[in-house]
Amino acid sequence: MSEKLMDYDEAVRRYDPVIGLEVHVELGTATKMFDAAPNVFGAQPNTMVTPTSVGLPGSLPVVNGKGVEYAIRIGLALGCQIAETCRFARKNYFYPDLCKDFQTSQSDEPIAYDGALPVELEDGTVFTVPIERAHMEEDAGKNVHVGGTDGRIEGADHSLVDYNRAGVPLVEIVTRPIEGAGARAPEVAATYVRTLRDIFRALGVSEARMERGNVRADVNVSLREGPDAPMGTRTETKNVNTFRGIDAVVRYEISRQAAILADGGTVQQETRHGQADGTTRAGRIKSDADDYRYFPEPDLVPLAPSREWVEQIRASLPEMPAAKRRRLKAEWNLADDEMRDVVNAGALELIEATVLAGATGQAARKWWMGELSRAAKEREVALEDLPITPVQVAELQALVDSGRLTDKLARQVLEGVLAGEGDPEAVVEGRGLEVVSDEGALLAAVDEALAANPDVAEKIRGGKVKAAGAIVGAVMKATKGQADARRVRELVMERVGV
């Protein structure tokens, strides 16, 4: 049953939204967080497990040192303080995919805390998101619902459990309440998670592929009468793993909660589930604090990362995405809106790799944001999934720069590369697309076109130089578009004595 909604613009005029996000990132370690089971995506169900993964009696956990390092890297990148000591805890709850009936996590002693992350919105506005904590934990298994639609529990005949994911290292990043975003709350939420995704990739701690669930967000939304009013009752929409979905969930919850409040109702504190159409549906009721009965993990000693180690990690951090974008924007001589388009299209790394392969920033941007973006849209794939590499794009541009290809011919070569005909050089040879550079052949084609159009030649001699376009067009047709139009025009003018 559809729920009553208030127009979004009216909702943000009448109420002040407050949001919060809990973002989980799966770490790209070779093994799991507390045992030696491989950390592999897509394996046959229940094959990537050890007794520790599933909590069999007598099995004992051992902390993954690389997982701790990755957590510290994330904390430092988010401007957090790194704890001198911290410890793991058991978070107790029952769910079929949690075979131990508890999750090894961190409670009141996280590895990182008190950070902040500036995020740049589409128009260039910078909004700073306060970070409360980033803590380590293990992932649960995965319930597979059979018989329903799109793997959802609705309409399913039965469910299966795959424990391959149980024990995969996670870092959970929890914001403080994000205030002051107003009508831009959906954009702030989505941009924040996108910024985190980019940081995870830059740090090398995760593939951060959202379609695989490597990054997913629990989205909290509440409304209040105004900035000085007490906080409203929040809802928490679980496991949203697309930027568009995060934006839609915040927008929907603002409109839904506003309609309830405007009618004198009370917003129910609950978990909710995001739907494919951008709506949410009710899950379970939540109290002010879930009774997870945290207690210290008795099988793991406290962690005490040395200050020397932390500083070594800090010194090894790569350039952060925001700083990198500013540097590349200047190096490539791009305008603000051009750079935003590049980032929004997911083309930054592709263009950077093309530049490193020898193309200029402007040339690389032209190909990836032009012909290749259109090709990706037609094929309904991401830019990075097109069957062409940055090196091949740079080779194509080199052929244009050398005069062996015109832009028109280069587009035909690009089609050949995308069709699997080989590298640009192979496509040029295979299709016979190289520019006609033989002056003798070009002069012969020009003379033939002038002889066939004597009236046009006279117009040119009479000062109507625009008429030369007809002769240039005839030569280009005769050479199947493989002549340099600029050189052809020069030869035409020489031949008619202008």
UniProtKB/TrEMBL annotation:
PROSITE patterns: GATB
Example of a GO biological process term: glutaminyl-tRNAGln biosynthesis via transamidation
GO MF entry, a single one: asparaginyl-tRNA synthase (glutamine-hydrolyzing) activity
Chemical reaction(s) catalysed: L-aspartyl-tRNA(Asn) + L-glutamine + ATP + H2O = L-asparaginyl-tRNA(Asn) + L-glutamate + ADP + phosphate + 2 H(+); L-glutamyl-tRNA(Gln) + L-glutamine + ATP + H2O = L-glutaminyl-tRNA(Gln) + L-glutamate + ADP + phosphate + H(+)
EC number: 6.3.5.-
Entry annotated with the keyword Metal-binding: no
This protein's UniProt keywords: ATP-binding, Ligase, Nucleotide-binding, Protein biosynthesis, Transferase
Asn/Gln amidotransferase domain boundaries: 349-496
Protein task: Allows the formation of correctly charged Asn-tRNA(Asn) or Gln-tRNA(Gln) through the transamidation of misacylated Asp-tRNA(Asn) or Glu-tRNA(Gln) in organisms which lack either or both of asparaginyl-tRNA or glutaminyl-tRNA synthetases. The reaction takes place in the presence of glutamine and ATP through an activated phospho-Asp-tRNA(Asn) or phospho-Glu-tRNA(Gln).
Subunit: Heterotrimer of A, B and C subunits.
Family indicated by similarity: Belongs to the GatB/GatE family. GatB subfamily.
Protein name per Swiss-Prot or TrEMBL: Aspartyl/glutamyl-tRNA(Asn/Gln) amidotransferase subunit B
Organism: Actinomyces glycerinitolerans
Record lineage: Bacteria, Bacillati, Actinomycetota, Actinomycetes, Actinomycetales
